[in-house]
């Protein structure tokens, strides 16, 4: 128990978690940017494209929030399968948000890369 | 895997518990949409699964991987209510988020109690200020032998007490009330931001974790 608490307070774990949480929304937007996807498809796409796993309890509330804020459009489609699927796609507002997020991401990454190079840690 | 009547009943039971758990914290339309989406997710997983070694075991495996309905509802409602409270900063979503935390964890109960006291203090001060012109002789600081005893609106003053404070007490009470509400709201938002960060590390809400590949 004590060991677990120490692990939870590990600054590296905390930093990694913050990094993951910060990247999750961007990852979700990227996964629906080229083609509409439904929840399970997004989970699997993220798992296959990266080595990261996102759970049902996390992704659906985030998708719900993104839908309510107009970043993502959601549509129930019932023709494809015996049960309906809710497909998510990027809205025009979401496309603009994603462009800005990617600008920030690339700028931030190049700055960190520059620091890494300057420190000779490549 | 195509579900038998017993399997269908198990899925309906899971979704019923999920819906009931979500109802406590979320609007009806959001609950219906969330349950429908989770149902679609479960059926997708069930369709792909093989009935190995039997339907019951395979279905339980799928449901277990998704998580207990109460746990999924907790994660779902916490994410929605906390996010809404932090993003909007409004009182109603904040109260909903704290109600959610207080009813699902001990650690959330005491800050929720603090929030309640903060709001009550703020609203009581504002109400007292508003009632001063209506009951000028019964509203203000009750002083007994020069010692302040209570602040508010009194139907029966304590024995020997006199009301201290004229109409000038109104702006002071309004300022105090607003300050109490603002401080409480800021504390509440800061706590929710901290809670969200803490929950992100929790094994109970794994969220976004390395598969170890």
Q: Could you characterize the architecture of this molecule?
A:
Chain A is an alpha+beta fold. Chain A has a single domain (2-118), classed as Arc Repressor Mutant, subunit A (Orthogonal Bundle), CATH 1.10.10. Chain A has helices spanning 2-8, 11-31, 39-49, 56-68, 92-118; strands at residues 37-38, 52-54, 72-77, 85-90. The radius of gyration of chain A is 18 Å and the shape is elongated. Residues 1-8 of chain A have low confidence and may be disordered. Chain B has a 3-stranded antiparallel beta sheet. The longest helix of chain B has 33 residues, at 169-201. Chain B is built from 7 helices and 4 strands; from the N terminus they run ααααααβββαβ. The radius of gyration of chain B is 26 Å and the shape is rod-shaped. Chain A binds chain B through residues 8, 13-14, 17-18, 20-21, 23-24, 38-40, 47, 51-58, 60-62, 64-65, 76, 81-86, and chain B through 30, 33-34, 36-41, 43-45, 47, 66-67, 71-72, 75-76, 79-80, 83-84, 197, 200-201, 205-213. β2 (52-54) of chain A pairs antiparallel with β4 of chain B, so a sheet runs across the interface.
